[in-house]
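Onboarding guide, step 5: your first structure request.
Type a short instruction followed by the sequence, for example:

Predict the 3D structure of this protein.
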Amino acid sequence: MGLDELRKAVVRRVGEHGESRSEAPTISVARHRDALLKTGDSLRLALDGLRRGMPPDLIAVDIQNAADHLAEITGVITSEDVLDRIFSEFCIGK
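The system replies with structure tokens like these:
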């Protein structure tokens, strides 16, 4: 019941050929969303540092942080890095 309406809604949203009609990207993984937010924060800090005339080495730290956050999404980091982060942030019992 209601499958025809659902199909029509999906086609309206995605389009006939599987292309999204939305201008904004869809982020379906919470970890990716978090990494993108952190990337944006780091880039804003770098821009703010540039505007305030901060030393390049301090601005580079913010840019490196942004690159590291993107690396979490692109897979540049290893699975061991992910596991280390999980075990450092969560208390996992026996």
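Each response can be followed by summary notes, for example: The chain has a mean pLDDT of 78.
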